[in-house]
Design a protein that fits this description.
mainly alpha, 61% helix, 0% strand
Length: 70
């Protein structure tokens, strides 16, 4: 589940869902709360652009790896 993966990344960076929601609000010029962010993650309805932004905020990089070439 994506919520477990994101929550682990958040913990690894000493963030909370609340602080992450605040950072998303700043970057997207749109109001995010811990509750609506948590709901999007739990329901797996979060858009990819928001996942990319979360990765950027937490200083991670998303990569697509060709599994056939490993």
């Amino acid at each position: 589940m994506i919520i477990k993966e994101i929550k682990q990344l958040i913990l690894d960076r000493d963030y909370t869902l609340t602080t992450l929601a605040e950072e998303l609000s700043k970057k997207m010029n749109k109001k995010y709360t811990m509750a609506n962010l948590s709901q999007k993650l739990r329901k797996e309805t979060i858009p990819y652009r928001e996942i990319k932004l979360i990765a950027e905020i937490l200083d991670y990089e998303i990569k697509f790896v060709d599994k056939r070439r490993r």
